[in-house]
Amino acid sequence: MNKDQVIASVAGDLHATEAALDAAIVQASTLVQSMIGARTAMSLSPIVGSGSQAKAMETIAALSAAREAIVACHDELQKDHRRMGWGTYAVGPLDKEGLPLATAAEMPVERLRAV
Asked: Rounded to two decimals, what is the model's pTM?
């Protein structure tokens, strides 16, 4: 693999990780919503399931902290990239005025292999 391919591989994995964390936050939020809706639909007291709902909310907070960490990782990778004089690479989903975001399935995937 040449340098561009290696950089693209890391960038693709970074973007996939960011997307996975976003998806996990959405799913955990849906779980909390479902728990509240189920309790309401069954006319149960707010006390019922409060412990499990609090744990689900703790999960959302932990996922949010993980998302902040991967965003900080992204920032550090950008700094390293510039420090090494490699210029600007636009790899991965980009949100540019009116252009659709690329999905993970549309992005080429190349994995590094240790030999």
From this structure: 0.71
- Tokens at 107, concatenated: 């992005």
Query: Residue 32 has what DSSP assignment?
Result: H
Report how far residue 43's alpha carbon sits from residue 46's, in angstroms, rounded to the nearest whole number.
9
3-class state of residue 73 by DSSP: helix
Q: Which two tokens stand for residue 88?
A: 């600007």
- Nearest to residue 16, comparing CAs of 77, 70, 87? 70
For the segment 101-115, what is each residue's pLDDT rounded down to a tens digit? 555 556 555 666 554
Lowest mean pLDDT among 2-6, 44-48, 55-59, 101-105: 101-105
Dist. CA 84–CA 94, nearest whole Å: 23
Please return the burial class of 45, using the count of CB atoms within 10 Å of its CB with bins 0-12, 13-18 and 19+. Answer: exposed
Contact 95/101 with Cβ under 8 angstroms?
A: yes
When pLDDT is cut at 50, 70 and 90, the band that residue 18 belongs to is very high
